[in-house]
UniProtKB/TrEMBL annotation:
Similarity section: Belongs to the zinc-containing alcohol dehydrogenase family.
GO molecular function list: oxidoreductase activity; zinc ion binding
SMART domains: PKS_ER
Upper lineage: Bacteria, Bacillati, Bacillota, Negativicutes, Selenomonadales
Name of protein: L-iditol 2-dehydrogenase
Length: 351
């Protein structure tokens, strides 16, 4: 079958791979219809390389069930599904508590086992969530990043009428977070980014205020738009070592900070920003992965529900739809940054 394999930093190859086979009566084989490129994929391509050289890459996908093991009861052949990428190679204290996202045995497809940039994938049946016919495969492939966002939001005390500032608002996580904030009934959504084109996308999906942090005093503008108090909740979705330190200045006293982005570099926090944690008595949430009990969790069922009801619009997020064979080419373009590239969806069944 066709696949994309990661061999090293900036070394991804379109190659043939063996089709997956079932090793357990609980396994399911899915024909992949759409697979998204995640921001973490871009960072690993640019900086870190693979966990295992030559591994089939990718972890965001939707598809159609083509084979099931004898013990499988939750899905049937021809079902349309999305796949939770989290698999376990053991059990520990957190796994047994049902805190699956905290388990040391929590691994993602595309890391230490074959991923979603391929024509087929094999996963345990519990990793698959059915989707309705009204939800397109392209849109459904964004359920995975949505589950990442909502897993974090469920950790906070976000309620109707509160204010939210989202840093990195023009990326996939940010654009989805804006829409989830609208669903939560947030009073004011402030989008922060360094790209005007991405800020325009933020407006289209529901941001009330947009701030280009390269050209404007972000802290002052947030205060101006929140009666001088600043935001009830600040979401760091950029994954930048720079913004990861600045966000502490954007929250009101007694406010909350939620970290969703992964800064692939050391974070150096100036005294001015660090003291905001203490002097403003902030609550800081780290958020990892996208699963809860009962596995894979309400992050997945809630995302499918609101996607199917078109409460979350993916058309402003997806900018490129390409055959899987164009994978190496689009990753190079992502490094060049010469054009606006949002979410990229790869189609393994297109030649």
């Amino acid at each position: 079958m066709d696949s994309l394999k990661l061999y090293g930093v900036r070394d991804i190859r379109f190659e043939k791979a063996e089709e997956p086979i079932m090793h357990s009566d609980n396994d399911v084989i899915v024909k992949i219809k759409a697979a998204g490129i995640c921001g973490s994929d871009v960072s690993r391509y640019r900086l870190l390389g693979p966990y295992i050289i030559g591994m089939i890459w990718g972890h965001e996908f939707s598809g159609e069930v083509v084979a099931i093991g004898k013990a499988v009861t939750n899905v049937s052949i021809n079902d349309r599904v999305v796949g939770c990428p989290v698999v376990f190679d053991g059990e520990d204290y957190y796994y047994k508590k049902g805190e699956f996202n905290r388990s040391d045995f929590n691994n993602a497809i595309g890391a230490k086992r074959p991923g979603a940039f391929a024509e087929y994938i094999c996963l345990p049946s519990q990793n698959l969530v059915k989707i309705p016919n009204t939800l397109s495969f392209d849109a459904a492939s964004l359920v995975e990043p949505s589950s990442v966002v909502i897993h974090g939001l469920y950790r906070t005390s976000l309620t109707v009428g509160k204010s939210v500032a989202i840093v990195g608002a023009g990326g996939t996580l940010g654009l989805i977070a804006i829409q989830w904030a609208k669903i939560f009934g947030v009073g004011k959504i402030i989008a922060i980014d360094i790209d005007d084109a991405k800020l325009e996308l933020s407006k289209k999906v529901g941001a009330d205020v947009v701030i280009n942090s390269l050209n404007e005093d972000t802290e002052k503008l947030i205060a101006k738009n929140t009666d001088g108090l600043k935001a009830d909740l600040v979401i760091e979705a950029a994954g930048s070592p720079i913004t990861a330190s600045q966000v502490f200045a954007y929250a009101k006293k007694g406010g909350e900070i939620l970290f969703l982005g992964i800064p692939y570099g050391d974070v150096h926090v100036k005294r001015y920003y660090f003291e905001k944690i203490l002097r403003s008595e902030l609550t800081v949430f780290g958020s990892w992965s996208n699963v809860s009990a009962p596995f894979p969790g309400k992050e997945w069922s809630d995302s499918v529900k609101f996607f199917a009801e078109h409460k979350i619009n993916t058309e402003h997020i997806v900018t490129h739809r390409l055959p899987l064979s164009k994978g190496p080419e689009i990753f190079k373009k992502l490094m060049e940054r010469k054009e606006l590239i949002g979410k990229v969806i790869l189609h393994p069944d297109e030649k």
